[in-house]
Amino acid sequence: MLMRLSPIHLEVPYFSQRDSATDQGLRMCFSSTCAMAAAYLKQGCLDGNGQPDDRYLDRVQRHGDSTDAAAQIKTLRGLPAAVLAIYCTSFYWTGPSGVGPRKGGEGWTGLIGASC
Questions:
Q1: 95 vs 5, 24, 107, 112, CA distance in Å?
Q2: Are 58 and 102 in contact (CB under 8 A)?
Q3: What is the pLDDT of residues 56-80, one digit of tens each?
Q4: Sign of the dihedral defined by the CA atoms of residues 91, 26, 23, 37, in that order
Q5: Which residues have a Cβ under 8 Å from the Cβ of 108 and sit 6 or more positions away?
Q6: Are strands 98-101 and 92-95 parallel, antiparallel or unpaired?
Q7: CA-to-CA distance for 81 and 50, rounded, in angstroms?
Q8: pLDDT tens-digit profile of 78-113?
Q9: Which end of the chain is less congested by CB atoms within 10 angstroms, N or C?
Q10: Distance CA 62, CA 75 (A)
């Protein structure tokens, strides 16, 4: 017997890389995605002046380049589900046709819900 579960929707904040006050906006998709996960998993961790994903980017750059998964993981250390967010985003991307399997293109997105 196949059981259908109700959709799950998580109240994850949305941060757009496109409105970054830094010069990194066009290459911040990984950082903005991880910032959304961090803000959800540890509310208040990105509070302060300016944009939360810009503050997160500042922390990432202490560990390396924003496109480096190791730098992202070091920044997210201590958040139990952070690795899941990175795993999910590495297999899905956003493009002109929407969200789909990663095909070597650029882009990271976070999954904020599921339906089984």
A1: 28, 19, 8, 17
A2: no
A3: 999 999 999 998 888 988 898 877 5
A4: negative
A5: 29, 30, 32, 33, 89, 90, 93
A6: antiparallel
A7: 25
A8: 775 544 444 444 444 444 444 444 455 555 555 554
A9: N
A10: 9
Mapping DSSP onto H, E and C, the string for the chain reads CCCCCCCEECCCCCCCHHHCCCCCHHHCHHHHHHHHHHHHHCCCCCCCCCCHHHHHHHHHHCCCCCCCHHHHHHHHCCCCCHHHHHHHHHHEEEECCEEEECCCCCCCCCCCEECC
Our measurement of the distance from residue 55's CA atom to the centroid of its chain's CA atoms, rounded to an integer in Å, reads 14
Angle at 82 between CA 78 and CA 88, to 5 degrees: 165
CA 21 vs. chain centroid, Å, equals: 18
